[in-house]
Amino acid sequence: MKEIYFDHAATTPVHPEVVAAMLPYFTEVYGNPSSIHRFGRKVKTGIDKARSNIATSLHTEHSRIVFTSGGTEADNLAIIGTALANRDRGNHIITSSVEHHAVLHSCEHLERLGFEVTYLPVDQTGRVNPDDIRKAIKNSTILISIMYGNNEVGTLQPIQEIGTIARENGVYMHTDAVQAFGILPINTSELPIDMLSVSAHKINGPKGMGALYVSKDVRFAPLLYGGEQEKKRRAGTENVPAIIGFGKAIEISQVAMQERQQKYVEIREMMLSVWKQAGIDFCLNGHPTEYLPHILNVSFIGQNTETLLMNLDLEGIACSSGSACSAGSLEISHVLKAMKLEEERQRSAIRFSFGINNTMEQAVYAANKVVEIINRLR
């Protein structure tokens, strides 16, 4: 039986070159980077290189990068850390109803601490209306957090326009770019944003490693206390092998970015073409033109998500119903609910997400298997 992995939005396989780069830092290069002797200095040099890699990819200075344990911690640090440090300025935060739970749950935590949060609606493509941002801003607004690209339906948000509105009103702007980083070019020197979250395991790096870009103008409080690592912004001895792996994964992703984009679009179009030709009933979820190329969310009308996923798994094809952070639960996606899609579309949606090892042959095979399964289930 063939095994095809179409769930790269959940996680990606670690690139062999990334593994090779990490290995010495488990055995040979083992010093504590905070130590001043040669063993520590050698490790610190590796960390500095990885930090420079991510800074270069984001077009910023290396001092603007804070390493974290993943995208979730980066989101928490940006939102909770900024809110706590700026409570004297205000207590109002704006986000959207389709954010990753790392953002939504951070905002809910702040509400329990007395902050006010506005959760903006989206249209049926999953996009926030910038005018809604403008209308929601108050004198007490201190932070706006809107994701760069949605992890479930792939919709890209108008970050440039939203960030401009934030700047005009003296409000900090954060974007969760975990799904977009390494897939699309991101230039923080041109984008009107103050903070940006990224993660290693979405770009063929190790799990448990991420980073937060923080502009020099942001005032935020650390969430961890103990040491002076990361310029006192994130205490704790660094996860050195994972940082090295992240740096290598970034190198690889930047070189092959355009090629990957083209491949993902071709895979996407091939699968849609197979389904159209087969005449099965399906709807594309997300924005028709402003989308992440590696994410394809489709509702197969008349079918059930769980049944389809189980049958695809039996055929060796891995895909999902949405966010992997809701693992073990096949409740209807909060993103699809927020998009106000018909209930039948919500209950029949599947996310296919592509990665570097996927091929056109796999796309054709998987798409035809979907057709076979649907015809059989009828």
TrEMBL record:
Catalytic activity: (sulfur carrier)-H + L-cysteine = (sulfur carrier)-SH + L-alanine
Keywords tagged on the record: Iron, Iron-sulfur, Metal-binding, Pyridoxal phosphate, Transferase
InterPro entries (alphabetical): Aminotrans_V_dom (IPR000192), Aminotrans_V_PyrdxlP_BS (IPR020578), Cysteine_dSase (IPR016454), PyrdxlP-dep_Trfase (IPR015424), PyrdxlP-dep_Trfase_major (IPR015421), PyrdxlP-dep_Trfase_small (IPR015422)
Keyword Ribonucleoprotein appears in the UniProt entry: no
Swiss-Prot/TrEMBL cofactor(s): pyridoxal 5'-phosphate
Enzyme Commission number(s) of this protein: 2.8.1.7
Domain Aminotransferase class V, first and last residues per copy: 4-362
Keyword Iron: yes
Molecular-function annotations in GO: cysteine desulfurase activity
Pfam family, one: Aminotran_5
Lineage top rank: taxon: Bacteria
PANTHER family: CYSTEINE DESULFURASE, CYSTEINE DESULFURYLASE FAMILY MEMBER
Family affiliation: Belongs to the class-V pyridoxal-phosphate-dependent aminotransferase family. NifS/IscS subfamily.
Name of protein: cysteine desulfurase
The organism's taxonomic lineage, starting at the top: Bacteria, Bacillati, Bacillota, Bacilli, Bacillales
